[in-house]
Amino acid sequence: MELDPVSIAEKIYTKALCSVRRNGDRIPYSAEDGVFDDKTDTDICWWTNGFWAGMLWQLWGYRNDPLLRDAAVSIERKLDKNLMLASGMDHDSGFKWLLTSGANYRLTGDPDSRNRLLLAATNLAGRFNPAGQYIRAWNDSGDGSKAGLAIIDCLMNLPLLYWAADELSDIRFRAVATAHAKTALRCFLRPNGSVNHIVVFDPGTGRVLDTPGGQGMAPGSSWTRGQSWAIYGFTLSFIHTGDAEFLSGARRVADYFISNLPASGLVPVDFDQPPELDWEDDSAAACAACGLLELERLTGETRYRHIALRLLLALAENRCDFRSDRDGILTHCTAAYRDSRHNYNIIYGDYFLAEAILKLCGKGTFLW
Ligand code: GLY
Question: At what angle do helices 66-78 and 51-62 cross, to 10 degrees?
Answer without folding.
Answer: 150
